[in-house]
């Protein structure tokens, strides 16, 4: 039914400190079980520790990928960015920028090149974005019609890419919803920008407000009402959307 991150379907280890068991990694495209509702950020401090198994298969930091999820002290963190340091005379170390999936907080974590990291599966659910409520965003499971929410702080800048009735992918671990995954690019309508014009190299871009409230820089020839493709990672203009032509 669901693709597994590793050859064996293994459950996540019980909460423990990184010093006791090392860091634990979860591939953010795969999964386990499901519960219909997700507690918002305001209740995240009371979320129970994730269940697990000490005999999980492990990988090295050299096998890490962006959007994998790292378990630190029993809490899931997604790898937002990473880079390697070290020379031929010193051991290489992997520096990562991690986002806590229940609070949205960003932290930095360094992994030694020979550090073994347990891997556990995630499950994905197809969901649609429904509406905003106070400081949360409400989604509906396409199969079960269960309603759940993520806080604006947990979603961060990604909330500017949410469109009503659009389908997204939700991640679950140990029966709990963890995160919303955006596609690499999303088409958005320009709702407020100066009239189209031509200019030199120093004035070839202008500010534009899009239908979700996101503001980005676009070429001078873009007009109100046009649909453009936007990079969801860098919040950058990629070109006009031609899918409807």
Explain what this protein looks like in three dimensions:
Helix content is 3%, strand content 43%. The radius of gyration is 20 Å and the shape is globular. With 245 residues, the chain is mainly β. It has two helices and 17 strands. Strand 9 (136-141) and strand 10 form a beta hairpin.
> Mean of residue pLDDT?
76
Strand order, main sheet: write it out: 2-7-1-3-4-5-6
Separation of the first and last Cα atoms: 35 Å
Shape: globular
Percent strand equals: 35-45%
Main sheet overview: 7 strands, mixed
Q: Helical element count?
A: 2
Unreliable residue runs: 1-47
Number of strands: 17
Give helix % range. Answer: under 10%
Helix-strand pattern, N to C? Answer: HEEEEEEEEEEHEEEEEEE
What is the SS-derived class? mainly beta
Kindly provide the radius of gyration, computed on alpha-carbon positions and rounded to a whole number of angstroms: 20 Å
Task: Give a quick set of tags describing it.
7-stranded mixed beta sheet, disordered N terminus, mainly beta, 2 helices, 245 residues, 5-stranded antiparallel beta sheet
Blueprint of the fold:
Elements: H1 18-21, E1 24-27, E2 58-59, E3 68-72, E4 75-85, E5 93-100, E6 106-112, E7 117-120, E8 123-133, E9 136-141, E10 147-151, H2 152-155, E11 167-173, E12 176-181, E13 185-192, E14 205-210, E15 215-219, E16 227-231, E17 236-240
Parallel strand pairs: 1-7
Antiparallel strand pairs: 1-3, 2-7, 3-4, 4-5, 5-6, 8-9, 8-11, 9-10, 11-12, 13-14, 13-16, 14-15, 16-17
Q: In a few lines, what is going on in this structure?
A:
The protein is 3% helix and 43% strand. With 245 residues, the protein is mainly β.
């Amino acid at each position: 039914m669901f693709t597994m991150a590793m050859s064996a379907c293994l459950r996540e280890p019980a909460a423990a400190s990184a010093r006791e068991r090392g860091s634990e990694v979860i591939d953010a495209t795969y999964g386990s079980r499901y519960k219909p509702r997700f507690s918002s950020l305001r209740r995240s401090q009371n979320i129970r520790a994730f269940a697990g198994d000490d005999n999980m298969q492990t990988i090295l930091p050299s096998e890490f990928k962006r959007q994998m999820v790292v378990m630190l002290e029993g809490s899931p963190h997604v790898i937002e960015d990473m880079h390697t340091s070290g020379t031929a005379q010193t051991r290489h170390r992997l520096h990562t920028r991690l986002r806590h999936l229940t609070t949205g907080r960003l932290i930095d974590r360094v992994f030694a090149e020979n550090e073994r990291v347990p891997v556990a599966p995630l499950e994905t659910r197809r969901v649609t974005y429904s509406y905003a409520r106070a400081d949360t965003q409400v989604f509906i499971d396409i199969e079960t019609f269960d309603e759940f929410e993520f806080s604006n702080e947990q979603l961060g800048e990604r909330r500017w890419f949410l469109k009503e009735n659009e389908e997204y992918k939700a991640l679950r671990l140990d029966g709990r919803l963890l995160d919303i995954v955006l596609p690499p690019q999303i088409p958005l309508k320009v709702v407020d920008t100066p009239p189209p014009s031509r200019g030199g190299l120093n004035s070839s871009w202008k500010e534009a407000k899009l239908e979700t409230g996101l503001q980005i820089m676009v070429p001078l020839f873009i007009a109100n009402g046009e649909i453009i493709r936007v990079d969801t990672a860098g919040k950058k203009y990629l070109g006009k959307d031609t899918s409807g032509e």
